[in-house]
TrEMBL record:
This is Ribosomal RNA methyltransferase FtsJ domain-containing protein. CDD domains: AdoMet_MTases. Residues 355-449 are annotated as: Disordered. GO terms for biological process: methylation. It holds the Pfam family FtsJ. PANTHER family: RIBOSOMAL RNA LARGE SUBUNIT METHYLTRANSFERASE M, RIBOSOMAL RNA METHYLTRANSFERASE FTSJ DOMAIN-CONTAINING PROTEIN. Residues 191-284 form the Ribosomal RNA methyltransferase FtsJ domain. InterPro entries: RNA_MeTrfase_FtsJ_dom, SAM-dependent_MTases_sf.
Length: 449
């Protein structure tokens, strides 16, 4: 077993790992990338891991899904002997004193099959979690709590190494292994997209109102609509396509068989007001931002909020998804005082955004027209191959991920003002071409959810 006090694991969606490392490097320039463990998981070094993780947890990055300290590296051979070696290494960790009587803790194991030629392991992640948790609970009097742990023992195993550390759920950015939040499928479920809304509510700490009106843009087949109805809301579902037949007899549902832009034009003119507006249409992020900005005048000022998914293009020659995102967020901040963005586990090539406190029309600043020129970003000294993209950061106004919601927290009780995000820099993808970025086609076709 080797020990270290300067390493941590960074987890993000594989296509966004470069952006995640860039936003973390902006917070702590001592960060260096020691190498990729697996797609979307990088081993990094910083001068002070505890301080670094604490800073990141308070900043709430957009692309970084999970952090875990590496306080010990255990040699493993995928035999049953590994369980004893991991248990011995755990009690020798510098943070083991956090596991004490009454502390709610969880053991979270991630097993990577990095070399299939070595055959199957003699154990599963579930076996490691159960064996280690039972031994620790008996020895220390701590309480295993896999849903709301205060302290987490994180283990990531390749075929040769086990990376082990102890930290709080708050500092990990998520109470789930690698930030992978799974939900059980139910017979009432209409679509996979329901998981995106459930995760957004949990990660951002927002609470659905128990009554009032919600506007669901691009509703078909009706996954989000079902969840909103179940919460007690009256729902106007906007989509030219049919909804799931199971929704036809639901009380409180109105289906507008048309496009979102047409509906919003009438809604704005008629002065309609909603407690919640959601959007998951398949359209360019900037077009979605303009549409949601238009809807701001229909959102109740005091406690209304908006949840939208921004679709991003894949990086290619002359196409930079992070420029699209930066411009979309800039548009949105012209209409809302509070804007937060995060790449959720259930997001694909997309970002989920929550906004609140719409700015009155007469006071709204006009967003600057994005420059068509190419600005070369400074070179990152820590890793030449990594993307130079830096995200736009906004301060979150709700409880921290991994922590139980306390009374009075959540967007509906918030009085926060608009956060000042860091300015995103252009990524290395854009630097491959000096030609102007091609215009994105405008479409309002909904992505069925």
């Amino acid at each position: 077993m080797s020990t270290t006090e300067n390493l941590c694991l960074v987890t993000a969606q594989p296509e966004f790992i470069d952006a995640a490392l860039a936003e973390l490097h902006a917070l702590d320039q001592s960060l260096t990338d020691e190498g990729e463990i697996a797609p979307g998981i990088s081993l990094c070094r910083v001068q002070d891991v505890a301080r670094f993780m604490n800073i990141v947890s308070k900043t709430h990055p957009t692309f970084t899904r999970h952090l875990a300290p590496v306080q010990a590296i255990v040699d493993i051979d995928n035999s049953e002997d590994d369980l004893g070696a991991i248990a011995l290494a755990t009690v020798q960790l510098p943070g083991f004193a956090q596991i004490e009587r009454g502390t709610h803790f969880a053991v979270q194991s991630r097993l990577l099959q990095t070399d299939k030629s070595q055959g199957p392991r003699a154990y599963s992640g579930g076996q490691i979690n159960k064996t280690l948790a039972e031994a620790l609970a008996e020895e220390t009097g701590a309480i295993e709590d896999i849903k709301k742990p205060q302290v987490i023992i994180s283990l990531l195993c390749t075929m040769q190494k086990g990376y082990l550390g102890i930290s709080t759920a708050e500092d990990n950015l998520s109470a789930w292994p690698g930030g992978a939040r799974h939900y059980a499928q139910t017979k009432e479920q209409i679509s996979r997209a329901e998981f995106k809304l459930l995760e957004a509510l949990e990660v951002f700490g927002v609470i659905l109102p128990s009554h009032g009106q919600a506007l669901d843009l691009g509703a078909a087949p009706g996954g989000w609509t079902r969840l909103l109805l179940d919460a007690g809301l009256q729902v106007i579902a906007v989509d030219p396509a049919r909804l799931d037949p199971r929704l036809e007899q639901r009380k409180g549902l109105e289906h507008y068989r048309g496009y979102a832009e047409d509906y919003l034009e009438d809604a704005v003119q008629q002065g309609k007001q909603y407690d919640l507006i959601v959007n998951d249409m398949r359209m360019d992020a900037r077009e979605a931002a303009r549409l949601i900005s238009k809807a701001a005048s229909c959102l109740r000022t005091e406690d209304g909020f908006m949840i939208s998914v921004f679709k991003l293009p894949h990086a290619a020659l002359g196409i930079d998804p992070f420029v699209n995102l930066k411009e979309a967020l800039q548009i949105l901040r012209g209409s809302y005082n509070i804007v937060q963005a995060h790449q959720l586990f259930h997001n694909r090539q997309e970002i989920t955004v929550v906004a609140a406190q719409p700015i009155p029309q007469k006071r709204r600043p006009q967003p600057n027209r994005p420059s068509q020129g190419r600005i070369q970003p400074p070179q990152r000294p820590y890793q030449e191959r990594r993307s130079q993209t830096q995200r736009s950061t906004s301060t979150r106004w709700v409880q921290k991920p991994g922590q139980p919601r306390e009374q009075g927290q959540g967007i509906r009780q918030s009085g926060s003002t608009r956060s000042q995000g860091q300015q995103s820099q252009r990524s290395s993808y854009q630097r491959r071409s000096q030609s102007p970025r091609p215009a994105q086609p405008r479409t309002t076709r909904p992505e069925h959810h």
